[in-house]
């Protein structure tokens, strides 16, 4: 489960920046093409945050769809699932977004 390692690095990054101060809420952006399952991240967050300033913090997760550009037909389109295919049938795609994991905001209590 790679969500655990990733959630650990998110929590570490926040603790490093904000210190041990109690955190009220964290908002993450997890692109739908990132391969990360938001529910798993939620579960891991509870485990990893325990004993840190992030314990009891609310976790909000935005899951924006991905966007891709097709090198075959030149179309740009939204991609919701990790099946990387253009409606024209081509798999020759540039992924423009959707693979990101970002910390959008941290609310200190
Ligand atoms: Zn295409």
Tell me the strand percentage band.
25-35%
- Please state the structural category: alpha+beta
Ligands: zinc ion
Per DSSP E runs of 2 or more residues, the count of β-strands stands at: 6
Between the first and last Cα atoms, what is the distance in angstroms? 31 Å
Helical amount among residues, as a percent range?
A: 25-40%
How would the global form be characterised?
Answer: elongated
Q: Mean pLDDT across all residues, rounded?
A: 93
Radius of gyration: 17 Å
Helix count, DSSP H or I runs of 4 or more residues: 2
**Which strand order does the major sheet show?**
2-1-6
Task: Write the element-wise H/E pattern from the N-terminal end onward.
Answer: HEHEEEEE
Reported for the largest beta sheet, the result is: 3 strands, mixed
Quaternary form: single chain
Please mark out the parts with pLDDT under 50 across 5 or more consecutive residues, or reply none: none
């Amino acid at each position: 489960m790679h969500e655990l390692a990733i959630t650990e690095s998110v929590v570490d990054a926040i603790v490093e920046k904000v210190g041990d101060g109690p955190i009220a809420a964290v908002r993450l952006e997890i692109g739908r093409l990132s391969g990360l399952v938001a529910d798993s991240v939620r579960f891991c967050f509870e485990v990893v945050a325990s004993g840190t300033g992030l314990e009891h913090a609310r976790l909000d997760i935005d899951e924006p769809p991905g966007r891709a550009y097709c090198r075959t037909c030149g179309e740009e389109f939204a991609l919701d699932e990790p099946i990387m295919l253009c409606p024209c049938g081509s798999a020759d795609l540039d992924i423009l977004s959707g693979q990101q994991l970002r910390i959008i905001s941290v609310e200190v209590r």
